[in-house]
Amino acid sequence: MYSADFRWRAVVLHYAYSVPCERVARILGIAGRSVRRSYELFKSTGHVIGGGRVKKHKYAPKLLQFISGNVKEHPTFYVEELQAELQNQFAQLRTGLSASTLLRVLRFEIKLSRKVLERRAREAAPLEIEAFRTKLRCWYRYPEQLAKIYIHAFFLNVTLELSLLVV
Length: 167
What we know:
9 helices; Homeodomain-like_sf; 0% strand; mainly alpha; elongated
């Protein structure tokens, strides 16, 4: 692939100075087809470098807005939680969205990579932990209560970390 400057030279020689494509190709040492393609692209778009395809979204804009809003609002989300929210909000989706499809939508439609999502979650985690502590602080005052909760949670097969609950 040739640079934009090189392509402009070929187009200027052919368009402005009326030099035939084959002669421009010989002068610049490139294929005649490259000169013709650059010229055709210039005639159709006004540029010598193609802008790529115009991407059509596969999903409704409402759905994409909901997903991006939900991800911004809850940076420490689980894909399963997002699936459940989508089922509640968009019941008309017959097939639903699988976990892999959701991750594909996040990556390619909304342009959120795994790195960006992880960074957002890391930055939001301390705030969410502090909010959780604040909620529990009004009900639980001393460690014995927390130990009872932990034992009760253990028997219900729920994991709770005491380090987060210590006031």
